Amino acid sequence: MNGAILNLLLALSWVVLTGDFDGLNLLAGLIFGYLVLALIEPQVPMIKGYARRLPHLLMFVGFFLAELFKANLRVAFDIVTPPWHMRPGVIAVPLEAKTDIEIALVANLISLTPGTLSLDVSDDKRMLYIHAMFLDDEEALREGLREMELRALAMLRN
User: Fold this and answer.
1) What is the pLDDT of residues 36-49, one digit of tens each?
2) How many domains does the chain have?
3) 148 with 80, same domain?
């Protein structure tokens, strides 16, 4: 988190020093700030690992947008076609996430995807209960949710 704050401060400094207060200049400041932080990362222990997070973040955003698009298409197809194809149900998915922040992120990402809704977390924080609109293949659904969780955790932990 410290790296992100430093990157934002560097970007804002860039905007102020150049005197150009628009979005593209802020984006340029963020890119230059990221490059500076990536270069000084070995010498500054408080930003350790910051440069490795951006590729994970970009890969996760691409993955999540693709999953979101596919889920929207599936739900839209089910709504438009006369016989409903959904088979709703509730399943328990084992969690790799350990902290409350990680669990909350995973649960919210699952709830953002159409056709799935996070219901509850077990008391020992090892299982997440999910309502799925399409429960045709439980193992395929669990595997897809596990992949989403692992990618989100890679983005947070690296």
Assistant:
1) 999 998 888 888 88
2) 2
3) yes
